[in-house]
Amino acid sequence: MQKSTSPQKRKSIEQFRRYVSSGKVQFFEKYDMDFVMGHREGPWLWDMDGKKRLYNLHCNGGVFNLGHRNPELIELFKEALETYDIGNHHLMSRTRAELAAELARLMPDNLNYTVFGVGGGEAVDLAFKVARSFTGKTRIISARGGYHGHTGLALAAGDPKYRNPFGPPAPGFEQIPFGDLKSLENAINTDTAAVILETVPATLGILVPDHVYMQGVRKLCDKHKVLLIMDEVQTGLGRTGKLWGFEHFEIVPDIVVLGKGLSGGLYPISATVLRDELESVFHADPFIHISTFGGSEIGCVLARRVLEMASSPEFLSNINNLSELLALEIEKLQKKHNGFLKSLRRLGLMMGLELADELSGPLLTKTAYDNELLIIYANNDTSVCQFLPPLIMEEKDIGFIVAQLDKALRAAKRLKPL
After folding, report:
1. What backbone phi and psi angles, to 5 degrees, belong to 348?
2. Where among 246, 280, 310 does a domain terminate?
3. What pTM, to 2 d.p., does this model score?
4. 209, 229, 232, 353: which sits with the fewest CB atoms below 10 Å from its CB?
5. Cα distances (Å, whole numbers) of residue 304 to 18, 27, 397
6. Which domain holds residue 280?
7. DSSP at 282
8. Rounded CA Rg of the chain
9. Cα(363)–Cα(76) distance, integer angstroms
10. 24 and 102 share a domain?
11. What residues form DSSP beta bridges with 54?
């Protein structure tokens, strides 16, 4: 812990150590990263002492797409509190109906029904339950290195390192390499209910698939009557330069999972959007699946405004413009740091910095932190740092980001053992 740390910050750290996670405190202190969030606004976070700030280039995977404490959403939140609360998950709800109708309007084809939850993992769990119930089959195929959440069924679709500490794996799940159509075809059998993919797997290092692969996945699912679930928790809501990431590949999923940024970082809400006929799963007993806080009425009010903002043609056009400008500057850094910064992976502002090796991602995460940038390495491919700028970033921010990233890259190279 730094000597200049205030008594209040020291108290907060010790309380966190004692009552929340001693392991996290130990980890952050080891790397001299004892940052405790204080003031936050737009793209910036300040330590609670106000002595350090970070430009957020991770955005919690999209939670803060619209920045921290977006003023328009804060005002709407205050207004909503005058009328609404959580609501009642058993009863009908105007705000829930209006949000679901807006999602249906913005989704392709007949993706018209939405079941609301609190987080992405819960939404993925529900997607699997619907797929199994509707098809009468049990197997779920996911991509090795992908990530769909830490709840029960979502966790089962992830890598063993996340599952194994918690006991025996749930049955009926199989992983295959991302981007490999032959492996997918070999894995599908008569008991396969669904295939789930992230449109761009973030934890796997921002691997951007090609059209042939994504359209091939859709065709294989159609051929074998298997449901296709697209996990848009991180790629949705404009991150890729289109409202939904799967639009780039001209495919239509059977189920779409949304979360993270859906309420602008102010209230937890997620959504599982279903093709019309899949809603029949709930006909015999419409109360067979419930989520006490899912689709809270306050959250629905915020999510509608987020959809309005994220679907704006001007908003999406600006994301694509920022993507091009950032890419040009990062390409210059790539030449300057040739061999260490190998490539930029990107789809809109869904970006990944591919580095020299698996040690380089953690090193750059640390040196970026030391240079006022919050960047986090991809946990399933640590040679890549996720680079997810806030979608409300301004052109004038690019100069600062690139200058600080340049310093961080230089520092990371110095730290890297030969």
Report:
1. 65, -130
2. 310
3. 0.96
4. 209
5. 39, 38, 28
6. 71-310
7. G
8. 22
9. 40
10. no
11. 45
